Structures are given as C-alpha cells and as structure tokens.
Amino acid sequence: MDYEGFLNNVRDDGGFRDRDETKAIVANVFRAIAEVMPQQQAEDLSGQLPGELMVYLRGAHKEPDPYFDEHLFLGWVVSTIDATGERDKTTGGLDLYADYSGDEAMRRCRCVFKVLKSTVGADYSTSIGSFLPEGISALYQSA
Question: pLDDT digit string (tens) for 42-90?
C-alpha cells in the first residue's frame, strides 16, 4: 500500500476531517511506536511500509524507553488536540477535557493500528504488538 492509500484508509475509517488532520494523527501514532520499538525492529519494517511512514520510525532508539507506558503513548497521540478548558470547580469532579482526549487517543490509535495491521504481514504485526505497552498492545490486538 502506498502512503496516500494508507492515509485515505485511516481517514475513511476514522471519519477524520481532512488529509492534514489524518497525516498528523498517523505521524503521532508512529512517533509513539518509535519510542517503544527497538531500532532494529523498526528498520525491519522498511520493506513493509511506505517510506513516508518510515520517517516517523527513524526516531526509534537502540533500546526503547522502559518507562514509556500507555499513558505517555496516548499523550503523544493526542498532543495536537486542544484538551484545555475552564478549571473544574467541583471537588472530585471529572475533567471532561482529559477524559475526552483519552477516549479520542484510543480511537485514533485503533484507526491507525487497523490500517497498519492490514499493511504489514502477520509476523511483522505480531512483532509490533509485542513492543507496545500492555494497554496499547491490547488495543492494537483488538483493532
């Protein structure tokens, strides 16, 4: 699959606004993957993915950050969402902006993961899932 096809499939699946929004979503998910995937495994994907996507995986470290958990992963995915608003003035109240952004991060991951899994072979797909933080790996498997 080529880059434009990848973006179109993600946009169609997620109902995202336009190409620019979709491109930013894909970039953020792939940058987060680069934080948890060892460099060698990221390089092994080069024959499976369009070069435009491999650019985001080039940030992979020789050894991934062991402290990059699912919360950090999702934080990177929604880094372009405006999740600010008025302060919650109730005691123990739910922060609707933070709650919404977490749900939206998971939705965005699912859309990208679904297309990613359909693009790479089964062996590569299993490998990718094994490097993701536990909660993100479950999300990946269910996509």
Answer: 999 988 999 999 999 998 999 988 888 998 898 888 876 544 445 555 5
Task: Report the SS3 class of residue 49.
Answer: coil
The DSSP letter of residue 47 is G
The count of domains in the chain is 1
122 occurs within a structural domain? yes
Alpha-carbon distance 45 to 38, whole Å? 11
- Residue 123 located in a structural domain: yes
Full domain range(s) for residue 40: 3-81+95-142
The Cα–Cα gap between 3 and 141 comes to: 23
In single-letter form, the type of residue at position 72 comes to: L
For residue 90, the 8-state DSSP code is S
The residues, ordered by sequence, that sit 6+ positions from 39 with a Cβ below 8 Å of its Cβ are 60, 61, 62
Q: What distance, in Å, lies between the first and last C-alpha atoms of the chain?
A: 18
Nearest residue to 7 via CA among 115, 80, 109, 108? 115
3-state secondary structure of 101: helix
Say if 90 falls within a structural domain. no
Query: Are the CB atoms for 73 and 32 separated by under 8 Å?
Result: yes
